[in-house]
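USER: Write out one fold?

ASSISTANT:
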Amino acid sequence: MPTFSCLLGWFRSQVALFRTPASRTGEDVPISQEVHAWAALDQCDILAELDLLQLGESLHTAALAQGGYDNESFDVMVTIADLLVAEHGWSLQQSDGWLERMGLWEE
């Protein structure tokens, strides 16, 4: 799920006119607002994926300190893996490998 700031950035890209310097003339040429909007939305998706991975890493660190995952953390880790597959294009093998690296299957 994109964060509010990402959605706000995407919205602004729909409204504002973005310009970039032309390579030869030195004049400003407009960038397609649609291209910029898709790029901003793609960036939000990447940031959302990184947020999930950071949450997983935090849970992993806590599990190492506690000697294992508690039931709630275990469920959250599995949910993160499911979201990585459903929302971010990961394969089942990738998410299963991630869970294994996070020590979930050692439980």
About this structure: The chain is about 70% helix and 5% strand. The mean pLDDT is 80. Helices lie at 4-15, 33-66, 71-88, 92-101. Residues 85 and 93 are 9 Å apart (CA to CA).
